Amino acid sequence: MSDRLPVFPLSTVLFPGLVLPLHIFEERYRALVRELVAKSEETPHEFGVVTFRHGSEVTPDPGEDTAVTAPPIGADDLYEVGCTAELRHVTELPDGRFDIMTVGRRRFRVLSVEQGAEPYLTARVEWLPEEDEPSPAAQLFAPRVLTAFRVYLELLRPNSEGLDQVPDDPTVLSHLVAATAQLTVEERQMLLAAPDTADRLRAELRLLNREVGLLAKVRAVPVPLADLARPASPN
């Protein structure tokens, strides 16, 4: 069974439980925010976030007529798996723009992209299953990933206060590592599409070991390690 969902294409990858702030200036997405705000409390206030395959979304000047300048977007332009963003806080600016705070909620697979009567893009999606409880394999991988992630963070940002705030829940940990490690968009997308927590943690352990090895090799270079790390994808 599929559902129809409004979608917001971005150059970043959203994961369940992670915070995503957005500045909304295009009229089509202002309309979406207004519709979401007007929904009843019983209805999910969420939209889909899907990632552009080519790394950067079209960002027209706020003063331009976006209905004319923005090219059409098709399924081939987007990755297949996305995550819904649940609206948590909305600030409307005097000129009609919005600053919103969202949190990733649930993963989906895009079946088709549609441009209907709404000004914004919609898609037919199917929801990806989530585990009620982490599997024994996930429980086994979690402490190993947590250890590798702590080593990685210490190399990347020595004496960081965030080292004491890393969760040990396998699923939460898997999403946090995927979202915060300085990986490529393709690697993040691969992790989002992983069928379960154990597969995601297994892939993250491999990626973290690779990154730790690279960072350890450049420790003697007299520049900040943060300048040498692979840059994260911008929102």
From TrEMBL:
Coiled coil: none annotated. Residues 5-212 form the Lon N-terminal domain. It holds the Pfam family LON_substr_bdg. Gene3D superfamilies: 1.20.58.1480, LON domain-like (2.30.130.40). InterPro entries: Lon_prtase_N, Lon_prtase_N_sf, PUA-like_sf. This is Lon N-terminal domain-containing protein.
